[in-house]
Write a structure and sequence with these properties.
Organism (chains A, B, C, D, E, F): Ornithinibacillus halophilus
CATH architecture of the largest domain in chain A: Orthogonal Bundle
Distance between the termini of chain A: 21 Å
Strand content of chain A: 15-25%
GO molecular function (chains A, B, C, D, E, F): exonuclease activity; nucleic acid binding
Protein name (chains A, B, C, D, E, F): 3'-5' exoribonuclease
Helix content of chain A: 40-55%
Number of domains of chain A: 2
Shape of chain A: globular
Largest interface: A-C, 42 and 42 residues
GO biological process, one term (chains A, B, C, D, E, F): rRNA 3'-end processing
Keywords (chains A, B, C, D, E, F): Exonuclease, Hydrolase, Nuclease
Oligomer: homohexamer
Number of helices of chain A: 10
Amino acid sequence: MKKGIGSYLVGDSFEGFVLIKESSRGLTSNGKPFLTLILRDATGEIEAKLWDVTKEDEVIFIAEQIIWITGEVNQFRGKPQMKITSIRPSQPTDGVHVSEFIEKAPVEREELMEKLTETIFEMKNPNLQRIVRAFIKKYQEAILTYPAASKNHHEYVSGLAHHIVSMLAVAKELGNLYPQINKDLLYAGIILHDLGKLKELSGVVSTSYTLEGKLLGHIPMMVEEIGHMAKELDIEGEEVLILQHMVLSHHGKKEWGSPTPPLIREAELLHFIDLIDAKMNMLNRALEKVKPGEFTGRLFAMDNRTFYKPSFEKE
Amino acid sequence: MKKGIGSYLVGDSFEGFVLIKESSRGLTSNGKPFLTLILRDATGEIEAKLWDVTKEDEVIFIAEQIIWITGEVNQFRGKPQMKITSIRPSQPTDGVHVSEFIEKAPVEREELMEKLTETIFEMKNPNLQRIVRAFIKKYQEAILTYPAASKNHHEYVSGLAHHIVSMLAVAKELGNLYPQINKDLLYAGIILHDLGKLKELSGVVSTSYTLEGKLLGHIPMMVEEIGHMAKELDIEGEEVLILQHMVLSHHGKKEWGSPTPPLIREAELLHFIDLIDAKMNMLNRALEKVKPGEFTGRLFAMDNRTFYKPSFEKE
Amino acid sequence: MKKGIGSYLVGDSFEGFVLIKESSRGLTSNGKPFLTLILRDATGEIEAKLWDVTKEDEVIFIAEQIIWITGEVNQFRGKPQMKITSIRPSQPTDGVHVSEFIEKAPVEREELMEKLTETIFEMKNPNLQRIVRAFIKKYQEAILTYPAASKNHHEYVSGLAHHIVSMLAVAKELGNLYPQINKDLLYAGIILHDLGKLKELSGVVSTSYTLEGKLLGHIPMMVEEIGHMAKELDIEGEEVLILQHMVLSHHGKKEWGSPTPPLIREAELLHFIDLIDAKMNMLNRALEKVKPGEFTGRLFAMDNRTFYKPSFEKE
Amino acid sequence: MKKGIGSYLVGDSFEGFVLIKESSRGLTSNGKPFLTLILRDATGEIEAKLWDVTKEDEVIFIAEQIIWITGEVNQFRGKPQMKITSIRPSQPTDGVHVSEFIEKAPVEREELMEKLTETIFEMKNPNLQRIVRAFIKKYQEAILTYPAASKNHHEYVSGLAHHIVSMLAVAKELGNLYPQINKDLLYAGIILHDLGKLKELSGVVSTSYTLEGKLLGHIPMMVEEIGHMAKELDIEGEEVLILQHMVLSHHGKKEWGSPTPPLIREAELLHFIDLIDAKMNMLNRALEKVKPGEFTGRLFAMDNRTFYKPSFEKE
Amino acid sequence: MKKGIGSYLVGDSFEGFVLIKESSRGLTSNGKPFLTLILRDATGEIEAKLWDVTKEDEVIFIAEQIIWITGEVNQFRGKPQMKITSIRPSQPTDGVHVSEFIEKAPVEREELMEKLTETIFEMKNPNLQRIVRAFIKKYQEAILTYPAASKNHHEYVSGLAHHIVSMLAVAKELGNLYPQINKDLLYAGIILHDLGKLKELSGVVSTSYTLEGKLLGHIPMMVEEIGHMAKELDIEGEEVLILQHMVLSHHGKKEWGSPTPPLIREAELLHFIDLIDAKMNMLNRALEKVKPGEFTGRLFAMDNRTFYKPSFEKE
Amino acid sequence: MKKGIGSYLVGDSFEGFVLIKESSRGLTSNGKPFLTLILRDATGEIEAKLWDVTKEDEVIFIAEQIIWITGEVNQFRGKPQMKITSIRPSQPTDGVHVSEFIEKAPVEREELMEKLTETIFEMKNPNLQRIVRAFIKKYQEAILTYPAASKNHHEYVSGLAHHIVSMLAVAKELGNLYPQINKDLLYAGIILHDLGKLKELSGVVSTSYTLEGKLLGHIPMMVEEIGHMAKELDIEGEEVLILQHMVLSHHGKKEWGSPTPPLIREAELLHFIDLIDAKMNMLNRALEKVKPGEFTGRLFAMDNRTFYKPSFEKE
């Protein structure tokens, strides 16, 4: 398998296709324009400088453009930087597609969809089942494409579905260990809890926040949408209110964005399963980059802690 | 005018109709049942003990029953207490009604309604105007009856409408002083900001929280309802989103129940006008009970502060 | 099955053996001594007054004494109170034992011990296994007897072992779902994390804090004891340090009593499994006392929240 | 009207007089000295580099010097930067004055003074009136010149008077809407509340903190000065104490610099009027720089929020 | 020496003079008036009930009246209570004085005054010395009489002087150990830091807060008074500002009442010496009431902690 | 005395030996390698650039290497930077030693050791004395060499011993002023409180945290070690527990790293003496660098405050 850009070391030469994630123009001290590019493929990203650019270059080498380059990896202020030696935009005949340059969930779309369908099939409460089924149907393509967040955890293609399916697996086992749990409720809460992100985030390639996302946030948007959906489906039981509560409270505390804290057993559990799955995703990915006996870099979304991999772990 | 129960002093005799607000049964040390009653009229409330009650008494003298009593005001553990000497439930022929025993806003319903109508008439943005008009039409009776809160401020009949109309008056003047303000937006936000309380609170006489109120809270409920209303009215402009944001953010901070803080000028202002009107309502009512040169009791909703009335104030 | 004292209602007559949990002397307004007793059996507790007591009574009817009484349940200040009509201390011939009057874990000691042994047997890392085995051997009787806390969660006989075994079951499943987890480390952390409570708490019947418990707390005490044990067993690998870290960090934050936060993946997970199991224990026990459609009382250890049992739950 | 330096875009040529706000010396990598200048006029500021400077240049081109330059606006690290092509210090014959290069309040001094005088004239309480009049007389020139703060809000010439007069207008309207308010007290509090800044801040051109300002702060300094003034004027009523309290408490909370919170109705109101006027000043100035449908930059003094200008606002 | 009322135990008989600290009227369940008295002497206080009081009794037995009683100590709700068997107000011929019934500092007034004088004599900076000397002269009687606080620490006659003198002793030693300290400044700060309490507190017998104390607090009042004093003495050096800063900052943080934190070495030290002396006073008095091996009651002003007296301490 | 590197000014020439504290490799914009060195001697440190380095240079000029250089002090981004003109590694014949280039306590090792011995000699409680003596014996060399912290206060050779001895002097005086203090306990607590740092910190030259230090921290490590030592010495009294408590609680609050707050008088005092000595060390060193009438730079470990040196201080 070809080595990804995320694993090149200082001194390596590079030749191949990459995607421009960001492009910004600068001026050197003697007034000449240059471009700072963030290049990426499915394994990671690297900064590059393109010197002495023409007006045409500035129009061509922009975000979401695929390019073919040769270059060499140097170090600049302690971080690797690609020194580009030749460059051209990709042609239709190159047969490359944006989706090849983006990180994906380690599980295939089909398998994720199958797990979702299976879970809905297991649900016995008809009101909960119908609402959940309707949302999956309405957003199927987006659920299987979107990341679960713009950064920190599950921030890759299919990340949202991967997060949901992983949480469902935990929920299934906890449901067996604590038989008082209402599994239908917990499953429904897990599947719906983050769907508001489909409207909060702009998309998959260079994920940002929508206006709606900034002014309302994914939690109130999803609470509202459950209400609309229940009306459309003519469902009226207490299940609608409880589902809205589960979405509303799943951040656990006012300070963390839930104006009401969990007041239902399954809502409390949903909050913890969400935390565990997000943390395991962050920790596993950070720890697989270090060797036994080493610390990871600081993890911003985990209170800036740095984690240790015991030296008795097998590599 | 007849003296209200809120102004009787220790040693006074009392005779007249009062409303039972709460009733609870107790046993004396020698095992005899008695009732502890909270009695109220439109001016205030007082505790009373009814000794040696029969099984029948326990069924008759319950919350929301109007009674006729004679008695005398004593003191018990530093607080006034009514010693009931005779008691009977009110008869239809007495011609008394629950509404006479409940505190009301100092402004009449008709006047409040007129001010609301007038404001809507002044609005120029058709989307905002139509949404606001639809809500006023849908909830007119409740808006003119409900309190603005279960305690602390405007906790009386028509309290909600009184709060809204009072805030509109402030908004009008600030809109003149700072001409950049979008008055339509500010008016619409003020009128809608607390309408979720119509579903959050149980009613007027002995106000408590509904199940929906506890599990969702008035803010997310109203955000959702604005969405429904806009759909029903087929309104689609950015005004809908902005109105939802104004309601969502009007508590100002996550810790205070707004998962998103104000990000629109008029939303920021709405938050402050709401604070000022609530505080002036609490302060004015607390200060009118004390003389110049005295402190009020502690005001729970104002960080437990006790306020001073300067001795150079005219009484 | 005989009805427990926890389920008697006002008006019921009572006859049988109960345990005195607390006893305190008072004086009536006319100067006569009486005793206020907290009586308990395995299902709950009730307050009782014993009037006109003699000097002898005061010596006999003290905490941890089993007594036989007849009486009647009254209500005093809104809470049930036993009116004792006859009383005598238990005799050896009565054949009753303190353990009958104390709440127990819903799982038998033997089964709990078996699960512990099984888990140790599964462990592959010899250093971790030896340390854990040595602690189980040293404290076997206490582990199977102590509560996990003096109040809030698992506060019953065998509560500590019940908590540990329940957490191990969760750990096993999470270990399967997230295969990167080092199960040996997680199991060892779970089994040891709260053993310091054996020195922090005074015992089972009327649990209080020891001097050591107050001045050091169970976390630093257990960290120290792991060090001692490793020395005794001549174990020197990094496992000792990591185990100490897991115990030290299992409260998650400085403010919650862990001077170091979790810096190992399995330590982070231990913290969350501990939280989930404690919360499920509190929630399940509180919710089984209320009917669908009702709220529980306030749960102090869960931020004073009151939880709702959906009305569509089967009773 | 000539275009101000605040509105030049990258690529524009510039010729004209500007004020040096700050000047600092640096060395290039090959050891040659250069100056980094912050240039400003009444509309804004821009950074500039002056290369290859002589010893003489370093002495001439210092803060508060007016210079004539020609240059061109480039971009450096995402921010505009003036590339100076020729430069000379201003001559007396140029007829330019520092005051032309500094931002001013949008209301004239004379009008501000008139409003202040008018308000004092309206006051009926002689003690309050005399104290306020004495302060206005003592500091008239400074009040009409100083900014209200060194940054964030009203940070321009006459900013303090502008802030006071704007607050008085709000107070007048609130006084009409809530007739219980003691207008004399509120007016006096507003006029005096920030006069301590005349001693806390160094002046108008490049505003910094005085030693007194750093070691005491404007609030305790003004409390003290009210005491001195009352002594001088031989005023002894409770008004002096109340005025001192209003100044002392106007930041609202200990954490915000008021060791005593407001305990007088008018002190509470003063705090809110101060907040509203400062926030409206910041918001209006930030929003007038963006188009409908855009967000402002982050506003540091408003919890770093970024505000949105609805797309239905007229530009 | 005669045993003080603070050391009587349940069952003891009492005969002697005591001071009424508080007196409040109540009604028994059958409507008869009684008085609840707080009685005190120089060693402590006890509650007492006086049954079947006449109108005359209510007028005689009021706060600050000295009375002669016989009685017996009982227990009521876990606290000792005096059962009065005979009572009469003191006569001039009894030769008893209020001052005998109030706790005093363990050091005599004369000795405290001497220490103050001595310290002032040691000071070399004439500005600091003159200001301090002037304050001691102005308030000499009050300084030697007032408590340092209304409760918590040094809350007894001469408590303020005792606190100052004790802090001066610590300062002297720290000044020797860290020779960089400016002793004059530290001494001046210590002597003046709490003199604002002479205006904040109402006096010695039943200490409460004055209006000035509530609305301004002792810190801003003293800052102002230092300013007045310096004017009166025609002192103008930086010492005045620094002294004001020391008083202003001596609570250490905004949240603790100092709007400016210490920014001078000696101010920082003053804050710590104040803390240490207050804490030692509280701790020593709480610990002298318990035996080795026991815990004190909860100390409110020390974060509600309860302190342990090691069992190896000599009693 | 020769001028130290800490006092060279921009423009000065330098010639002499210095120690490389840190060395890191960079690439210039045209791809040539260079080294950024942090050079230090006993008086301070300076950054330097070494251009055009060879592969050999990169191996030679590393941390902890002593070098001889000539150079000139320039300024780069506002900070002084050494421009190296010639460089060579030190030779054995140069007769220079690492210890000459590191800051040392202002008191000699012998004197520090003498003070420690003296204090132990004064202790009367045999259990406390034996434990303390054993620790001093075990760690004598390290105690006299280690810094008290990696930065902020006493961060120099013998800093730990200097800190302990300085605290003992304060303790001795406080013990005299407050005779209730148990001096033996306080002395023992002071000597042991920070010895855990000998395992937490890596050493003296370029101090960092050990793995143990990161995962446990010096406080729990020292609590454990006191337990071990007591076992080894066969000491069993309450003194062991109390000493462990003193170490455990000496940071004062959970948030500051002490899971249990001080619950012993001497533990409370230890916390304050520690604070005072650390703060005086920081303040004195910061203030000796500025002139009267100036402010220090911001002191990170003192809430980022900047301190003022009064202009009436003698220089």
